[in-house]
């Protein structure tokens, strides 16, 4: 018998070892659930969970359940059917990823590839997809996460047209077009056959109808590293410790390109040599490759962080006496000794479920820094190649937009604290300390006793108390039981801070989903909170009677004989449709006008009513200030939606000694001192609202722009609006500051231009050096029923509302 003929038996021996390892790391109930994965794919009956329709394709090639599955059925009170299915729909069912490896821990999910018959039609696949979604929900009822992925047998080995037709569109768990061969390589090195054909994953595998061959991973192009690194950064938003290990593997591969020794080849060589020990493990092999690479780079800092990530991902807690000693325990103990870790470090890592926000902050910062450093290395590697020809530009746009919202260097953005493994970061007491020298506020996780604060590190810093407060509320540090203090201030100030934080908590929910369409369009507001006088409060020195203010309906922005403005500072806390929380500071006489001018565009673009509130924190006149600002905010929403293209609306407002006019037009809101415009001032005095003819715009670049573009203008985003002419392309560009430029591109194809511009922004030296992800958004200007409309470029409308 030739050597290739022996390979299926050798592969099956490793497969049995992996199944035994997977089961050894599962609870008794989870073991039964694991056994039911192929069984439920085999069956299609109303008696089983996941049933959708009598026509749902089912059955797995050569699978015949036995007593193990029968026992599992008994546990869940399911009938047991052992017969094979005629014309099975699936070539095989395979677990892949961290299952059965060092990386499998108590919280690990199970990723399952369902390799289906190539002849199944779209309707068949839709039924299967619905069935798998229902099965995922059923497994979740038992706290067992199982994710199913439909895989076409030609997805990796067909030509480009066949591959793109087989690809799943990008979603939270689907990498879409960002990676192709690298995904197959991960499958080959980690797959476990649960049922169906043996996978021919060894080098130079020969085609055999009895085996499943998905393609040759050695065709891996350099251009794929970029898309894969972007995908790992995206996955790192939730699980940065896992993403760091995978992106460093890409970096190690790239360093040896085109002579990279792939992990699946390393594992196969060990298997051929008869090594079925814990060292021949798909996840441990990743660590070995990264360690060798970083030692070669003499990069001890990154290596130390990687070791901690690897240890935490495995979940083998060496300092915990009650820890079960599974097949990984001895190997992990040996590794830790080689790393010369002190007992104190092991104890700290083992206590990760109780890490406080300061520890999490530090670890998150290290992970983010290393993720971005690896991304820049891979970007430099990929910059000599074109973008991966299979990488969809619309998916590139969505990924980079999502990454920009997380890695943005905008100082007004509220950072999200990844809880990683920690169960809770809530604090019973927090203290703010202001630094006049730095003009910053610092937040500490202790009460305001000096000896407690000495030597402690701040868990957060910001430009205003509101920014610290929204950070603490969003990230679970501040709860309804948390008491707030400001160092050096009295009880009254502390109680106002505590009350304000509780009001904020009532306004926050954590269920704002972002769809693909949201990321392909300009942002708009979903929530908006104005916080008044939290740290700058003119009412402290006001000695009037609040009742008289109500009786006389007095103007709190110009109160009494001295015409004092009772609003000292305003913080606008907002959530936008890209799921970014921000806190913007406005202070001085015109604070309320500055704030209204800032929020108007985001209110105008909103497709649904914006959830708005005002929190007044002043010592006096609290309800009066809240009512005045809330009325102004409501009036702003009404007028900015009411204004027509042909006119400008003007609303008067007295602030202190100055009379202002608030102007609303299609571009937003502006304000102006009207003190010298006597005739205009008299007109405003008689009428609360004036409608003015729209002035000639003259050389204003917006005058040559299609009016509909004005509704899409959003600061912070680069936007290209493209209109196809007979032999040219109209290109309108709005930069991050909404500065307009316009040119005509002769003889250019829209897709070609989008690709070229995207490539420029991806590999632009300025962007790469700062790891920026603010790649332009692209829109088409098309006529629908005679009306010029704006449509996001390349977005499948049928798939646009999928959460991303």
UniProtKB/TrEMBL annotation:
It is found in: Cytoplasm. InterPro entries: Adenylate_cyclase_1, Adenylate_cyclase_1_CS, Adenylate_cyclase_1_N. Keywords: ATP-binding, cAMP biosynthesis, Cytoplasm, Lyase, Nucleotide-binding. Its EC number is 4.6.1.1. It is an enzyme of class 4 (lyase). It catalyses: ATP = 3',5'-cyclic AMP + diphosphate. Residues 9-202 form the Adenylate cyclase class-I N-terminal domain. It comes from the Bacteria. Belongs to the adenylyl cyclase class-1 family. This is Adenylate cyclase. It comes from Shewanella decolorationis S12. The gene is cyaA.
């Amino acid at each position: 018998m030739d050597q290739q003929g022996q390979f299926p038996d050798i592969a099956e021996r490793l497969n049995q070892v992996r199944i035994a390892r997977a089961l050894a790391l599962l609870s008794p109930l989870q073991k039964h659930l694991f056994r039911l994965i192929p069984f439920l794919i085999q069956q299609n009956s109303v008696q089983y969970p996941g049933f959708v329709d009598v026509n749902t394709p089912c059955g797995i090639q050569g699978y015949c359940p036995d007593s193990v599955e029968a026992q599992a059925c008994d546990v869940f009170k399911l009938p047991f059917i052992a017969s094979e299915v005629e014309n099975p729909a699936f070539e095989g069912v395979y677990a892949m990823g961290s299952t059965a490896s060092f990386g499998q821990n108590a919280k690990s999910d199970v990723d399952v590839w369902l390799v289906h018959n190539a002849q199944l039609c779209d309707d068949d696949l839709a039924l299967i997809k619905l069935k798998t979604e229902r099965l995922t929900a059923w497994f979740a009822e038992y706290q067992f996460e199982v994710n199913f992925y439909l895989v076409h047998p030609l997805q990796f080995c067909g030509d480009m047209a066949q591959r793109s037709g087989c690809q799943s569109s990008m979603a939270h768990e689907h990498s879409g077009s960002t990676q192709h061969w690298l995904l197959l390589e991960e499958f080959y090195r980690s797959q476990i056959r649960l049922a169906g054909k043996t996978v021919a994953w060894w080098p130079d595998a020969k085609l055999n109808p009895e085996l499943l061959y998905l393609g040759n991973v050695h065709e891996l192009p350099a251009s794929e590293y970029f898309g894969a690194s972007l995908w790992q950064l995206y996955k790192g938003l939730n699980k940065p410790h896992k993403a760091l290990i995978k992106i460093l593997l890409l970096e190690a591969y790239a360093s040896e390109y085109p002579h990279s020794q792939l992990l699946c080849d390393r594992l196969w060589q060990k298997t051929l040599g008869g090594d079925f020990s814990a060292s021949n493990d798909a996840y441990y092999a990743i660590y070995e490759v990264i360690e060798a690479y970083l030692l070669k780079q003499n990069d001890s800092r990154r290596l130390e962080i990687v070791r901690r990530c690897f240890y935490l991902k495995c979940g083998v807690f060496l300092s915990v006496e009650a820890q079960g000693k599974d097949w990984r325990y001895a190997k992990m103990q040996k590794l830790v000794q080689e790393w010369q870790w002190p007992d104190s470090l092991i104890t700290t890592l083992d206590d990760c479920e109780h890490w406080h926000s300061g520890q999490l902050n530090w670890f998150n910062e290290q992970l983010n820094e290393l993720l971005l450093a690896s991304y820049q290395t891979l970007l430099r590697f990929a910059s000599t190649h074109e973008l991966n020809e299979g990488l969809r530009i619309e998916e590139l746009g969505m990924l980079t937009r999502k990454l920009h919202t997380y890695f943005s260097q905008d100082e007004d953005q509220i950072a999200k604290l990844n809880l990683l493994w920690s169960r809770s970061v809530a604090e019973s007491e927090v203290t703010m300390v202001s630094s006049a020298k730095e003009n910053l506020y610092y937040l500490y996780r202790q009460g305001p006793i000096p000896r407690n604060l000495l030597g402690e590190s701040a868990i957060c810093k910001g430009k205003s108390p509101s920014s610290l407060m929204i950070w603490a509320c969003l990230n679970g540090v501040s709860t309804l039981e948390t008491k707030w203090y400001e160092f050096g201030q009295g009880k009254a100030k502390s109680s106002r801070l505590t009350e304000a934080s509780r009001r904020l908590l009532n306004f926050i929910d954590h269920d704002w989903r972002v769809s693909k369409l949201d990321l392909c369009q300009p942002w708009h507001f979903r929530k908006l909170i104005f916080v008044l006088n939290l740290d700058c409060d003119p009412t402290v020195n006001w000695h009037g009677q609040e009742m008289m203010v109500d009786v006389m309906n007095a103007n709190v922005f110009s109160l009494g004989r001295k015409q004092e403005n009772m609003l000292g500072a305003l913080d606008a806390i907002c959530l936008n449709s890209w799921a970014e929380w921000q806190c913007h500071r406005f202070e001085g006489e015109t604070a309320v006008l500055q704030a209204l001018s800032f929020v108007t565009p985001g209110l105008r673009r909103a497709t649904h009513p914006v959830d708005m509130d005002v929190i007044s924190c002043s010592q006096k006149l609290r309800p009066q200030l809240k009512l005045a600002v809330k009325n102004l905010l409501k009036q702003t929403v009404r007028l900015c939606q009411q204004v027509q293209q042909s006119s400008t609306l003007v609303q008067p407002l007295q602030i202190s000694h100055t009379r202002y006019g608030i102007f609303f037009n299609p571009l937003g809101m502006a304000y102006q001192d009207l003190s010298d415009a006597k005739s205009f001032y008299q007109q405003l005095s008689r009428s609360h609202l004036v409608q003015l003819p729209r002035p000639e715009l003259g050389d204003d670049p917006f005058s040559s722009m299609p009016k509909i573009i004005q509704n899409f203008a959003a600061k912070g985003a680069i936007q290209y609006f493209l209109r196809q002419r007979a032999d040219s392309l109209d290109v309108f560009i709005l930069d991050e500051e909404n500065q307009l430029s316009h040119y005509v591109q002769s003889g250019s194809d829209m897709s070609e231009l989008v690709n070229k511009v995207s490539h420029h922004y991806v590999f632009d030296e300025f962007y790469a050096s700062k790891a920026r992800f603010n790649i332009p958004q692209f829109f088409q200007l098309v006529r629908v029923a005679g009306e010029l409309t704006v449509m996001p470029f390349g977005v499948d409308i049928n798939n646009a509302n999928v959460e991303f």
